[in-house]
């Protein structure tokens, strides 16, 4: 995995092999960040990275000037890796080791961008719970967006607040807005 743009552009990051992750592919990540870059001024953003895994998305945001990032994952190896790399690269990424659904149920902070990259084989009902919790608990700031990454076999278009989706290979980013 590599950082595509910003201060650490081109930097290769090698995550430990024992982490239960599927990092977002560079082509898909580049497409996502092109979309977000046309909509937001990155240094002003407050970002929540759910199912953060290797921190791939958090590192990309931080490299592009975002200094208010919270990464949530339930696997301690993932949280330790994100913290280690963030420290090495002097990135201000806070981490929380928690089940994402429990975190969303108790969190009161609001964010401009919430990115969620759950396991592709997660049940559709679990996918539906993500936007439900986020919008019920009003976790997005004004003009904020929820982005859920999923496989092309999963269709989230019927979920309330769905706005649009973009496909990149086997990955799809579904965008949700208020």
UniProtKB/TrEMBL annotation:
InterPro entries: RNA_MeTrfase_RsmD, SAM-dependent_MTases_sf
Molecular function in Gene Ontology: methyltransferase activity
Swiss-Prot/TrEMBL GO biological process terms: rRNA methylation
Keywords: Methyltransferase, Transferase
Superkingdom per UniProt: Bacteria
Protein's recorded name: Methyltransferase domain-containing protein
Species annotation: Maribacter aurantiacus
